[in-house]
Amino acid sequence: SVAAPVTKLPSKATTANDYAVKGAQASIADMEGNWDSFRFAPIRESQVSRAMTRRYFEDLDAHAESDIVIVGAGSCGLSTAYVLANRRPDLRITIIEAGVAPGGGAWLGGQLFSAMVMRKPADAFLREVGVPYEEDDTGNFVVVKHAALFTSTLLSKVLAMPNVKLFNATCVEDLITRPSNGQDVRIAGVVTNWTLVTMHHDDQSCMDPNTINAPVIISTTGHDGPMGAFSVKRLVSMQRIEKLGGMRGLDMNTAEDAIVKNTREIVPGLIVGGMELSEVDGANRMGPTFGAMVLSGVKAAEEALRVFET
Ligand code: AHZ
Questions:
Q1: Which of 3, 69, 100, 256 could bridge 292 with an S-S bond, Cβ 3.0-4.6 Å?
Q2: Tell me, what's the pLDDT at 52?
Q3: Would you say 266 and 235 are in contact if contact means Cβ atoms under 8 Å apart?
Q4: Would the CB of 99 count as within 6 Å of ligand 1?
Q5: Which ligand 1 atom sits nearest the alpha carbon of residue 74?
Q6: CB of 144 closer than 6 A to ligand 1?
Q7: Which of 116, 118, 76 is nearest to 97 (CA)?
Q8: Would you call 16 helix, strand, or coil by DSSP?
Q9: CA trace torsion 83, 89, 95, 100 (10° rounding)
Q10: Mean pLDDT within 63-83
Q11: Which residues carry a binding-site annotation for substrate?
């Protein structure tokens, strides 16, 4: 929550003591032209440490039991989080992202080009989130002038939601399973570790992971790669599905429709969306067009909410 406006600083207040008035709020104009006497409010290093660690461990404590865990904060995972957190502010939503920087492949449009293409009707999502775009002359797609504008706007909205916590630089390295209906399993949570630890299991032994329980996991870890397609590859190695179809060659028209329509619960408790799904189904890739990623996120959120609404 945002603090209510409080004590106003005396005009041209620029010393540490001025800022130490509890709740004082400076304006940039107070500082301009006053740099000789400028000082920050005082702090002790341990206060910084406690301000960070207390919050982090409170979040770890609260999110150890989550309602929904989203694995991967690419364009699909972030879109999923946006829809879920808006529709159900009462649900505790956890996002686990292996990279330090959330956003996955959505910081550029394609190759090294800035503009991001979204085929209609995914422009509806841009309007809902408040991302500006221009219409293409064809009338069939819209263009965001920089993919980073899309990703940073979406990310800022998701991170500001009080029911969402992003743990970045953290990997999902296994799935929690439970017996269900006799011999079948359902997914009941995720096993996590710092990404740097996950990357070093071969040369550092005995570094056990952490866990998060949740009745619904939504995996959006992208297509196969060093980190990608994590959950569906694990479903194969735990013999829950026989084999992956493997992502097929690029066909924008076929790929985008298929990814959105087939976003679904693959095994009980595990919904898969975005390009991770192409690895299960043997679906085409679409390359540098992002409408399917955001609408797969909308569908993944709808599938997850079905669980809480029944
Ligand atoms: O870091 C990964 C990325 O940010 C993260 N991730 C992967 N494995 C993880 C794990 N634990 C936690 N085990 C993990 N995080 O998941 C994110 C995936 O983002 P993405 O942009 O790669 O996937 P997406 O499905 O949201 O969007 C894919 C967009 C396309 S289409 C396409 C093509 O057709 O060639 N290529 C891309 C990148």
A1: 256
A2: 98
A3: yes
A4: yes
A5: 19
A6: no
A7: 76
A8: helix
A9: 90
A10: 98
A11: 76, 97-98, 105, 172, 208, 223, 275, 285-287
